[in-house]
Amino acid sequence: MDNELYNYISYLNNGSIFDSYAKAQAVISRHTTPICSVSGGADSDIMLDIVHSVDEAGNVKYYWLDTGFEYAATKEHLTELEQKYGIEILRVKAEKSIPACVKEYGVPFLSKYVSEQMMRLQKHNFQWEDEPLEVLLQKYPNCKIALQWWCVERYSDKDGVQKISRFSIYRNKWLKEFIISNPPDFPISNECCEYAKKRPAKRVIKDFGADLNITGIRKAEGGIRSASFTSCFSESPTGCDTFRPIFFYTDYDKQVYNEFLGVKNSRCYTEYGMKRTSCVGCPFNRKVLDELEIIKAFEPKLYKAAVGIFGKSYEYTAKYRAFVKEMKFERYGIEYNEALKFTRRLSCADYIKNGF
Fold this sequence. Notes:
The protein is α/β, with parallel strands linked by helices. Helices cover 54% and strands 9% of the residues. It has 17 helices and eight strands.
């Protein structure tokens, strides 16, 4: 990092940005074969700008995971990044494309974790029964982990049955009640993540003999992925370390960085109006219906493909959302949005009196 850039970053007086540069320079300099995963998204753009700025020796190799179902704007942006920084971004094909995975294994639903547990249950021909864990373990002895998620209980020979809360089915309100009332008649799976992203990334690490993999994960994203880490660096005693330069960036830090360091995002952001980009039309996206409207307007062929691939999941998700709304109506006796306004005006005594 040259002195002019160092002085400018210091001038910004933003601790997150300054620390990310300092840590990136230190981490990259002590590794011999670093690689960097570029997604073409907004977080990735900042990460790439940092990494390229501190990689004075030009040791970092860049790669992009092609899931087989991508925005045209993202592909264009990769070429723009190559031209801007004078780098080559290796296009890595999926082991199995997203469309192929959905056809073979099933559609994603709600979240990676929910999909994984439902996939496990379906593999054992689970009938979505509302029974105690002890009873279900006798019927499905080889499906312990998913059954614990379903029953919100954990079993061990030492402690017996104990209640759990973290990452249980009740993290999604009334999901269990919904599934019992509306059992899925189609396969559910999160294998598209495994074959389109995880396995190709592992292959890249092996092929390059990499000792450092750099990614654009941020803690502020939330979800299982970011919750798996507590810091920006993970050391591997025998394999490849992992570095997340912008792990502690807030949305405000991103705004400051883009404005003062001249980072331009893809047309997905500047023209389409997206707030973030993940896999195209992914049902894990909480705002996927809004995203679909954008895709329909700007990449209509991709929209038709998304509906064809994920349509059953979209329908099931919409049905679940409607079920939740009905349950809230039954519980509170008024429409949910009105309930929110109402509860803000209640005292503690009123909460008890009204059954909240």
